[in-house]
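Translate sequence into structure tokens.
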Amino acid sequence: MMTAKRAAMIAACVTGLGATAFYWPAISDFRANAQQANAPRSEAARPQGQQAQQGQGQGQGRPPVSVRIAPVVRGPMPFMAEAVGTVQPIASVAIRSRIDAQIDSILVADGAPVKAGDILVRLDSRQIEAQIKQAEAALAKNRTALEQAERDVSRFSELVAKQTGTQVSLDNAKTAAAAARASIMGDEAQTENLKVQLSWYTIKAPISGRVSTFSQKAGNIVRSGDSSATGTLTTIVQTTPIYVAFSVPQRLLGDLRDALSREDSEVSVTPQGANKSVKGRLAVIENTIDAATGTIIVRAAFNNPDEILWAGQLCSVRMTMRVDQDVVSVPREAVQAGQSGSFVYVIEDGVARVRPVQLARFQEGREIVTSGLKGGENVVVDGALALTNGARVEIRNAEVKKGNS
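Result follows.
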């Protein structure tokens, strides 16, 4: 009986050993696969600096990354600001009548250009002309009376000297002469006043520019002091020269004030819908800053001989405040953002190297670099996302290769 039990136990042990030998290779393969699967995760969990160091050691074994490059440029760069501006006339005059009269004729067409002194409107002046004639007649009468009074003074002076006349008569003659002189002065002033009023019947252009549509035509009555729409006969706006007004951030105030006296400052505007730009000069900086928007209004003056700029027109404004002569710049696509700040990939001997940079401003599609680059290097502008520090590269635009590439 004991022999049978021992035989059964021996058989069970043999069976267990055989099963263990059968499943052991499978367990080993499973552990190997698990370790291989966890290897990339461990690599990804490493700090970025360790990966970069390992990349320098293993970069030679990886295929090169296809990139496009561009040269770092060192040279003059304009300091510019862009805005949307509005064309404004330097002067604008509303033409109104200073007296009540009927319009006799309008000598200028609607919208026509005029020069200062051109006659725009003639009013019916017959009544004032008659009053002037009346005043001139009174003046002539008083001058005649003065001549008579002066003759009396002369005659009575001789008689008194000969003691054949009275002193009273002489005094009365002198009084009459003085009164005649006073009357003449009053008549001359009255005549001059009427002549001034006569000039109001001929309405002239006070400035050169272009007139608007006339609100009244010949035959209508105009009245002084009428501030309604029909009371303004027309409006003249100056077109040459002309302003373009635009707003810029207040942080540029110092640069704007310097630009007023700089020879290399310039303002270029392009009217909306036009393909031609007009160049002018910075003329006026508003004396206050808008506290609500933090901007300041600037006006640039343009000669505008061809009247390309029209009052009220919207324009795209490009203002050059100065030209910096020695500036390092790179295309905006070359600048990458990292945890420590901005950097670029510089190509050295077919290898991409990380180069930290400090940026000043963005201008004309390029970033102005204040430190980190000297000019002449080649930087990656396309394909940087696939790069690491020390990675080998294959340059697609080989014609750009220069300098240290």
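Note: The radius of gyration is 48 Å.
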